[in-house]
Specification:
FAD/NAD(P)-binding domain; D-Amino Acid Oxidase, Chain A, domain 2; Helicase, Ruva Protein, domain 3; 3 domains; about 20% strand; globular
Length: about 525
Amino acid sequence: MKRSTSLDRVHSAEQPFDIVIIGGGASGLGAAVDAAARGYRVALFEQCDFAKGTSSRSTKLVHGGVRYLQQGNVSLVLEALHERGRLVQNAPHLVHSQAFVIPNYAWWEGPFYGIGMKVYDQLAGKLGLQPSRHLSREATIDAIPTLEQAHLLGGVIYYDGQFDDARLAINLAQTAEQHGAAVLNYCRCVGLAKDNERINGVEIHDLENDTQFTVYAKTVINATGVFVDELRHMDDSQTAPIITASQGIHIVLPKHFLPGEAAIMIPKTDDGRVLFAVPWHDQVVVGTTDTPVNSKSLEPRALQAERDFLMTHAGQYLTKSPSDSDVLSIFAGLRPLVQSGDSSDTAALSREHTILISNSGLITLTGGKWTTYRKMAQDVIDQAEKSMGIEPTHCPTETQPIHGWTQTTSSSQNLKLYGSNAAGILAIIQADPALGQKLHPALPYQKAEIVWHAREEMARTVEDVLARRIRALLLNATASIEAAATVANILAMELGRDTNWEAQQVTAYRELANGYVFTHPASVGG
């Protein structure tokens, strides 16, 4: 996947694209894959990097939503569980089964959650993972040795999916590109073209080359996440906003806080949220919160109350309470929740996706979650066909392998997520053994991966690499800062940049990454 190839596809187009998509997160990339796989001419534009926003800041779970089952939203859970099963099949290099233990501290919790998880299993049907079961007190402690044992009666173990969200986004971009789509990062939509009040294209500013051009299309899809109202307002200045933003944060702790393979799931915390402590890339992700926010940012920051909440609750359920110095990283993401009346309780707003069509023909896709990205894409492309007056076509993505699909995993732990592309990285090392060196002593990555990111994954900045191509920023923010100069040097050689660019990249990355260091003042919101 090369940026120059996609630019050529855009600039050499002699007729309008069938579908132009604005937004390179889960929903936009999923829509691009679906549309391109159906044979449509597709272009996707992302103002920053793929999955820069919410789509790289999730809890890293592919799940049906236990909380929605508690709320009685069986249809949503059913859909999500089926999509979970499809994603395990279509991207086995990125998605795997993860054991979760619900600890029981009251007599009623065992039968209550045990029955609930059996229903969860049944809803998944043939696409289910392992069956849930009750655990004795001793078996619960064996599964989670660091779980708080005072008043512990036992537990319930069940299985859900886990994945790497940003890596899936990159693979979706590659999948769309393989089907002929033009996918471009660092291309901002700055205007909408219209003919007789109907949208027939978009004005794009290529931020890397500082050029502006018009791309014509039969239909335009707005898949910009929490920012969909901004594009809707560009279309119609009188349109009412539909998005309420909710912030969720996570902290990352060293593996010794959760040394086993199982995760902890607390069904209901003080604020009614589900709390997870999940092994991920040999660290532990703890989250999340649900805090209404009035402003929307590409780099949201954790509020002090959120930080305190996670640290307090982590201490309640673990034998050792984490200190500030234990936290390797802290990150925040914004959920695009479709407004429901005048509700101010974001946890009660729908996670189901919504599709809107404006008078000018702009199709807006918003809401939803990573687990159901494929179904969201199917629904929005079905709608695009109706808008274009085209006979419905078959959606092939239920069983379509995602780029990197393989049944043979790499023996190198850090290369497993690349799936079939791991061979390409090993070839780079074979050609230049020095690139087999580790990027940083505290990180599992090799220098050859950075070369691959530049050549084949459209990485353009140090942040693209350390935040999303590899997950160093989330796993160990301080170590990622220390690795920035090495990454900048490798990228400069691959992209033809000078030493001034290297220095600017290191400075910019350090400023951004400081906000992920738990003890750094920049990471504390007001």
